[in-house]
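Late entry, written up from scratch paper. The run itself happened at the end of the previous shift, but nothing got recorded in the book at the time, so transcribing now.
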Amino acid sequence: MPNHKRKHFVVQMHQASHLHYDFRLEVDGVLASWAIPKGPTLAVGKPRLAVHVDNHPLSYRDFEGVIPPGHYGAGRVILWDSGTYQTPPGEEPASALSRGKITFDLRGKKLRGRFTLLKMHRRANESDEPWLLIKDRDKNVDPTFDPENYPNSVKSGKRIDDL
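Output as recorded:
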C-alpha cells in the first residue's frame, strides 16, 4: 500500500470493571475506538468482538496511568501497542467506517499486517454497536498469538499490575 498517508493507531490494555483492550485508529482528528474483550490477535480464523465506544481525543494516544474512580473508564491503563496504519490507496478511513467496513495495514510493535474491522448487525436488545476485528491472511499471521503473552507496555515496560 505505497503512497498513502500513514495514521496512528494504539491499543491500550485497560483494567476497568473487567480487563479489555481499547483499539484506537486516528480518523479525522480523533481516535475512533473499540473495546476488545479478548484482545487483538495475529491468528487467522479467530475474529474478535470489538464494541464501538466513544471517540477519544488524539492527546489520549500515549496515555498510560490510572483513571480515578468516578471518571469515565476508571481503572488502570497501559499502552499495549502503538504504531501506524494505512488503508488501501483511495480509501478514506472515515468513509470506510461509515460504510461499516475498513481494511488497513498495521505497523505496530506487537501487531503487524492486514486487518479488517467489520460492523455487525445489532440485536434488538443490544445498545452497543458490535464490530469484528479480523486478522487477514498475510506473512504476519501467527496461529499461536495470545495477547496475554505480551503483558508489557510498549511505552514504559510496565505491566498493568505495576500501576
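The chain has one domain: 7-154.
(Scratch paper discarded after transcription.)
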